[in-house]
Amino acid sequence: MALEQATRLDPNDAFAYANKGVALHDFQRYEEALAAYDHAIRLDPNNAFAYANKGVALDNLQRYEEALAAYDHAIRLDPNNAFAYANKGVALDNLKRHKEALVAFDQASRLDPTLGHLDREKLLRMLGHEGET
């Protein structure tokens, strides 16, 4: 894997470790992806990208509360991170915290109209508010 070589060439490159995590995640190697994200975060504690993607890995491992913490950290670092808000909504939905999920999806949609819309519609139907936008 090219990212293995990149992390060997510069073991202090947080960006390379975060991208290694994405690649591992794509292969559904979630625990390994999580380790790569954690390594990226140790190298750069202000890496919102690594925190947001760590949340996705935790979501896939059904560790929803931990995923929420990762998304919230990403959002603190980058309040305009629509990806983190949208995925926070997914985690909240998985925890049956539908009203909070709706708030997260709405924020994701405000920041990036291409995110959160379909999940928001599903939640509105579940909450009995069909047709609201």
Number of domains: 2
What structural class do you assign from the helix and strand content? mainly alpha
The succession of helices and strands, N to C, reads HHHHHHHH
Whole-number average pLDDT?
A: 87
For the biggest sheet, the summary is:
none
Task: Specify the helix fraction band.
Answer: over 70%
DSSP helical segment count: 8
CATH architecture descriptor text of the largest domain: Alpha Horseshoe
CATH class category label of the largest domain: Mainly Alpha
How many strand segments?
Answer: 0
- Strand fraction: under 5%
CA-CA gap between termini? 44 Å
Give Rg in angstroms.
16 Å
Could you explain the architecture of this structure?
By secondary structure, this protein is an all-alpha fold. The chain folds into two domains: 1-70, Tetratricopeptide repeat domain (Serine Threonine Protein Phosphatase 5, Tetratricopeptide repeat, Alpha Horseshoe); 80-133, no CATH class. The chain is 74% helix and 0% strand. The chain starts with a helix and ends in a 7-residue tail after the last helix. The mean pLDDT is 87.
Can you describe this structure in just a few lines?
The chain is an all-alpha fold. It has helices at 2-9, 14-26, 30-43, 48-60, 64-77, 82-94, 98-111, 117-126.
List keywords for this structure.
133 residues, mainly alpha, Serine Threonine Protein Phosphatase 5, Tetratricopeptide repeat, 2 domains, 8 helices, 74% helix, elongated
